[in-house]
Amino acid sequence: MSSFNNDKVMPRYMMIAVLLTIIGIAVIGKALYIMTAKKQYWTEVADRLKRDSVSVKPNRGNILSCDGQLMATSIPEYKIFIDFQAAAFAKDDSLWLDKVDSLCDGLHRIFPKKSAAEFKHDLEEGRHKVNKDGSKGSRWWNIWPRRIDYNTFVEVSELPFLNMPRYKSGFTYETYNSRRRPFGSLALRTIGGLYGAKDSAYYGLELSNDSILRGIPGITGRRKVLNKYMNIPVTLPVDGCDIVTTIDVNMQDLAERSLLDMLRRPEVHGEMGVAILMEVETGDIKAIVNMMRTENDQYIEAVNSAISYRCEPGSVFKTASILVALDDGVLGKNPQDTSYIIHTGGGVMPMYGREMKDHNWRRGGYGDINVARTLEVSSNIGVSHVIDKFYHNEAERYVKGLYRVGIGEDLKLQDILPGYRPPLIRMPKRKKNGHYDDNWYATTLPWMSIGYETQIAPINTVTFYNAIANNGKMMRPRFVKKVVKNGETIKEFEPQVIKERIARPEALKTLQTILEHVVSQGLGRKAGSQLFKVAGKTGTAQVSQGKSGYKSGVVQYWLSFAGYFPADNPRYSCIVCIKKSGLPASGGGMSGVVFHHIAEGVMARHLKLSVDDAHDENSLVIPDVKNGDATTANYILGELGVDKRVNHSSKVYGENVAPDVIGMGAKDAVYQLESRGLKVRVQGRGKVKSQSYPAGKAIVKGSECVLVMH
């Protein structure tokens, strides 16, 4: 048996132990060195190779009209860049030099506003740019300064050089969610908008429903594996819900066109215009128009004046004053008795050191008239005399009456539509000696009764008239009907009643009759219709210029008409307001005319006529269906049991040739063109008047065709 030689073995073990100890100390030292001196460097490397908790944006929900048409939706847009420090530039520029001319020619074809030479000059400038760290070539050089849509992005990514793998060509991009409104500026201030580069709402329904529309961001991790990034989903994003509004696109368009036609008339040249259409039974806002004139005489929706522009409403306020008097019974025990006589004289009556005048004072005034006639002819003297006579010593009772009938009600719309401003109607206060305080004058009550010394937005006035039409039930204006997700209703917003009854039924019935007479035999005739009954009230008020008073420079007027239709079975209430400078100025003759066009246009949609009334014995009953997306037409005609006829009167072209779409509606024209690979842009409304891509021309996929509608 061999013996263990300790003298030979132990030195070897010691040598191995020392060596391992030195290696261990070196490892620990290196680790400490990396953790301290090289910490920043390796942190940056780690950030380049791995990014945890990267936020993934969800798709923002849509805003829909009451019948499901898109009023606001999100589509992707891109900003495109080139990284001149990518692999294709790092070692050898020969590939770039070989492809740059064809690249610039392609960019010029896609973006014709910039020449190929200009593109080349800009790109070469980015390639030769010297950075702060001494490196050459910009890492984020704009190929095109503005955002582009998806189709354009695809075209750019297929150009020479840029079609190589991303880390070779340096082609990179940023994705944005762009908010688009298919109906352009229609109801713009109500629908709302987003800040350009951010998914952040700043007004309208976009803002008040931001938490519903936005959705919930997801989380993903990114890891670099074999020189490629891998996305590892952690939490999937939850897309935003859609909201269904009460807006009717057709009614909105009708109200906007009717108001704009009046504002643009030379004798009007309005500075501002507002129109609100409200459904009587539910309080649904079917149309809301806010127009403001720009410096170049164009009209845009710049401010939601319908809910925020508080002003002295003028004579439309007289209705509230008379309703308070009828409801309080100061004119007689029977609220239906309007025989109380007011002596208006020659149209001028002194009141506490000031003159109260009727609009016809130069023509001798109205003489003796009863309460009903007072509203019919909008007599300032008549209304102010009634209120001052019965409420002069108890003004608090009158103001409380205004709040009781709802004209001063805070509609609490701040959370529904940001910018809403509730009414300002002063409540008188008494001193200890029983007299009113210094801010309440003898003239305050009579002038308040005819629509001055108060501040009320149009939305409050139309809500008040809507309550009269609804037999006293005051509804809160409703802008959003429900929230939907993937076709299923998540939440429904029911109509809300603010007041079950604003006045006694007898007083309301009397007032309804008077408002009908205002239109049938008073100053509101131009708002009426020969097809159905209309009820309402005109208003013409001078606009205060602040400390300068009402007559500083050119006098400004606030013209309005508020009412409802059909008067015998009210379905809609409406208010139209116009702000203009100088004469002529007539609430009935200007705002009333707009009301007339809106009312007749809306009611025309509800007419039910016999088919026999639409043709004579020589006419063709069976309708022609033009070429286009005939799915809807075929379905309707099939349900009616009518033979379907396709009108081939227009020349038919092959699939690779542009069709003739002149005379078609937008839907059919777009269907015909885009199904053949063209990109369509529509200008205006109506039927196609002209097409920029000529009929019969061979189609180049992705080319643009502009359709001008009329």
Secondary structure blueprint with pairings:
Blueprint: H1 6-36, H2 39-49, E1 50-56, E2 63-64, E3 70-82, H3 87-90, H4 94-110, H5 116-127, E4 141-142, H6 150-157, H7 166-169, E5 171-180, H8 188-191, E6 193-194, E7 201-203, H9 204-208, H10 210-214, E8 218-225, E9 228-235, E10 242-245, H11 249-263, E11 272-279, E12 285-293, E13 299-300, H12 305-308, H13 318-328, E14 341-343, E15 348-351, E16 354-357, E17 368-370, H14 371-376, H15 380-391, H16 395-405, E18 424-425, H17 444-449, E19 454-455, H18 458-469, E20 474-475, E21 480-485, E22 488-492, E23 497-499, H19 505-521, E24 535-542, E25 556-565, E26 572-581, H20 587-604, E27 624-626, H21 631-640, E28 645-647, H22 666-674, E29 679-683, E30 688-691, E31 704-709
Parallel strand pairs: 2-10, 27-28, 29-31
Antiparallel strand pairs: 1-8, 2-3, 3-4, 3-5, 6-7, 8-9, 10-21, 11-12, 11-26, 12-13, 14-17, 15-16, 18-19, 20-23, 21-22, 24-25, 25-26, 30-31
